[in-house]
Amino acid sequence: MADSHNVFISHKGGDDKQVQNLKARLKAQGYDVRNFSVDSTNHKDGRRPSDAVIARLLRMRVSWSSTFICLIGPDTHTSKYVNDEIKYAHDLGKKIVGMYTYGSANDVELPEAFKKYGGTPLGWNSVDKLGDAIEGKNMPAENADGSTRGPIYNVTRVKCQK
């Protein structure tokens, strides 16, 4: 765990406190992560940059990260930027990991781009699994409560005609 890892934590602006909590929890578990996401702690003098500047910063910072984490809260799916960030991370071939904010695993809507490009989101208490994903280890699928999810066997095969 001594290696430093560059991550981008995508989130809705109102979840800045949850981002800080996640970074602290990862650090407490011994993970050395550098967060390249844009949150209110990055704004000098409390001034918010223009939308064009934020979009440019987001593209640069997603490209610098090795792991893209989507912090999923009650309003994440309504974010002006989250879907674009996820799509851009996918286009760059980044590892996309979802994590529910504290207390929201059972009652939130996933961002559309995460439904398309992400995997199964982790529960808030799965920091060890998130750390494994950051380090490039295989991550088992899990249910919203954090328990390991079994395989899905309801596959339908359709024969196409020429």
From TrEMBL:
Q: Which domain of life is it from?
A: Bacteria
Q: Which residues form the Thoeris protein ThsB TIR-like domain?
A: 8-103
- SUPFAM superfamilies documented for this protein: Hypothetical protein MTH538
- This chain belongs to the protein called MTH538 TIR-like domain
From what organism does this protein derive?
Chitinophaga sancti
